[in-house]
Amino acid sequence: MFDTGSMIIGGLVMLVSWLVSSRLQSKFDFYSKVHLRNGMSGAEIAEKMLADHGIRGVRVISTPGRLTDHYNPADKTVNLSEAVYNQRNAAAAAVAAHEVGHAVQHAQAYQWLTMRSKLVPVVQIASSFMQWVLLAGILMVNTFPSLLLVGIILFSVTTLFSVITLPVEYNASNRALAWLKNKNMVSQEEYAGAEDALKWASRTYLVAAIGSIATLLYYIMRYMGASRD
After folding, report:
1. CB of 203 within 8 A of CB of 20?
2. Annotation marks residue 195 as catalytic
3. Which end of the chain has fewer surrounding CB within 10 Å, N or C?
4. How far, in Å, CA of 129 to CA of 151, rounded?
5. Is 201 helix (H, G, I), strand (E, B) or coil?
6. Which of 44, 47, 99, 169 is catalytic?
7. What's the DSSP call for residue 58?
8. Span 141-184, pLDDT tens digits
């Protein structure tokens, strides 16, 4: 029988994640209507923030999709979704500055970003086997509990990655907001919009981390219960 406990936890996490993501999209749409008084696009905001931090060799490029913005430390590119790259509003400024915040972290060897980057290949391996090992471990928990333990170890790697992601994302947002404010890049209204948008973006990572921790604890309790039998 399929593991109903993990299904319930997963369902709750998916529901909360959907609610937060929906709220984030509505916030982004709302603040996309708050046009910047300086008339700068997201790409121009990103370029200026890079220059103000003395960062060279990082390219700002456009990437397809919606809310697909990210910084790639491998090729040193700030990837901005088409809306963010071209538009000139509070939402675009917030997202562009946030992604440059990651570039600043990289340039300054921010310890949490360095730690997360080192975990990436380990997480990729763990993710490839984790679901199958956990499923087999649950099905055989009463006869071969050690298999579930292996699954727990694999899952703990991805959970650790989710937790380490939190300070990385919150710090990038704080760097972005501080720069926008200190350089007078936005008005008070625009700053409030940027701050609110980034707050909801950070909550998506918080929900993911909490859900991962809750699932991990559930599997640990299942393993401990089987071990005592």
Report:
1. yes
2. no
3. N
4. 8
5. helix
6. 99
7. -
8. 888 889 999 999 999 999 999 999 999 999 999 999 999 999 99
